[in-house]
Amino acid sequence: MIARLSQLCLLSLVGLLSLFALSSASVSTLYAEPTADQAQAQDQAQPQANETAQAEAAKEQRLEDLRYKHLWIAYALIWLIIFSFIRSTWKRSEAVSERLDELKGRLKRLEDQQHSQD
After folding, report:
1. Can you give the pLDDT at residue 96?
2. CB atoms closer than 10 angstroms to residue 6
């Protein structure tokens, strides 16, 4: 069951990373620069106001992209922590099971020795 859970966590992590890659691509296309014709028309209409507005829009875009990147990095780190915790718990569980099997075997041998002496 723990192996299945760790597989699910790994798949979730892979899905999260692919979602991050897709969202980064879609955000960059959403805020793509205007075409040369559009930029030229805007520049002719209001050159000074346009430059100020473009600078502000570019600054906002950089800040927004940075926020989203930090968010996805935080999500990825959380999933990595969860996955590593589940994996370490699984390894400990295997070690405890092996030790328990070893102790059961020793107990059985001791019981057999005691019955043979009686």
Report:
1. 97
2. 18
